[in-house]
Design brief:
243 residues, alpha/beta, Rossmann fold, 2 domains, 7-stranded mixed beta sheet, 4-stranded antiparallel beta sheet, 29% helix, globular
């Protein structure tokens, strides 16, 4: 896999975590509590937090009584997450497009818009195939994605942020297929440029991705699991079951 892929540089830097530090543990706790009540997974169920970052959701899943493996492509994020390691909470560096050998899960969680990063839709299929292969029969797959319908219609084209004496100049665009975010960082005399890019995926796209492998059980529009409304909801949260 070529290092030209944008997420290698961005997700492995401290600036990424600084920009998104408002996504806090309390938000993760509330979301996982809502999911736990909805899913009713048995204590000790084997679950995968796929693209776990520094593991804030993994920790909350573990506190809910689950046996958790958190994986992420960012070695720096995993190094940070491993500070929380215990007998039932593990972390590893892993590419979501690949199957994890010798592991089988009752549920897979893909949270905080950790999908659609790749160049082709075929790579989306690879991710879905890997998840399918790692799930037990009737295992649960939960994906939490931005609601592209609302996000595109209300796209903030530019903004400036100062966080901990570091300046972020952010520009956004939608090209019909992808949502781009260009991040220019000024850290003292140092200037660094990064880019985020996600595929603009809608509920209909996920239905196509899932149709041969998953039943969609529920679709929600926020972290309190209120119903999804395309023009209004902040999130697109899908709960699906392996066929």
């Amino acid at each position: 896999m070529a290092n030209k892929e944008w997420f290698y540089a961005w997700f492995d830097t401290s600036y990424y975590h600084l920009l998104y530090k408002h996504r806090n543990d309390e938000e993760a706790r509330q979301f996982i509590e809502s999911l736990s009540k909805n899913l009713k997974l048995p204590k000790g169920a084997q679950v995968l937090d796929l693209a776990c970052g520094k593991g804030r959701h993994s920790v909350m899943l573990h506190r809910a009584g689950l046996n958790v493996l958190g994986v992420d492509l960012s070695s720096n994020s995993i190094a940070s997450a491993q500070k929380n390691t215990s007998n039932d909470l593990r972390f590893a560096v892993h590419d979501m497009r690949e199957i994890i050998p010798n592991e089988r899960f009752n549920a897979v969680f893909n949270l905080f818009t950790s999908f659609g990063y790749f160049d082709t839709t075929e790579e989306n299929d690879r991710v879905i195939e890997s998840i399918y292969e790692m799930l037990s029969i009737k295992g649960i797959f939960v994906i939490d994605f931005i609601n592209c319908c609302k996000s595109i219609n209300s796209l903030v084209l530019s903004e400036e942020k100062n966080i901990d004496n570091i300046h972020f100049s952010i520009r956004r665009k939608f090209d019909g297929k992808h949502i781009y975010k260009y991040i220019n960082v000024t850290d003292g005399t140092k200037k660094i440029a990064f880019m985020e890019r996600i595929q603009a995926l809608f509920l209909a796209d996920f239905k196509r991705l899932f149709k041969d492998k998953f039943f969609i059980k529920n679709v929600y529009g926020d972290y309190k699991l209120n119903p999804f409304v395309a023009e209004e909801s902040d999130r697109l949260i899908i709960i699906a079951e392996r066929k």
